[in-house]
Amino acid sequence: MFKVAFASVALAALLAACSPADAELDGDLEVNGMDPAFWGVKVSRATKSTSIAVLGERDIAGELPVKSKGAQSDVVLTSKTPDGDFIMTLRQEDCQDGLGEREYHWSVTASWKGETLKGCASPIKSAPAPATG
Fold it and tell me: How far apart are CA 69 and CA 93, in angstroms?
């Protein structure tokens, strides 16, 4: 009986290790989209802020997003702004932002003021420290 229980726990741990690696969303993030209009988001952990730009609207400053689990393996990032919550649902999959110039591994659907925005997200890789010598 103990072996069966241990095997079940080991299998569950193995399956959890195969889930999408959403840890890369814990750093700085860039989101771009063109559906229905050009829009973009930059998440900066250093400034603990989210900058939201939607074509035709003024840029909006929001709080650092709170991360939660969505349906299936989706990740939900919610940033509070003076104009309401900006909610992004991210799914790990290849994505093109409409320009086709960058490679993204996260698709994004954002809810903003009753509108649905679609785009792609990518972690911003920090530049390596310069070599000393």
Answer: 16
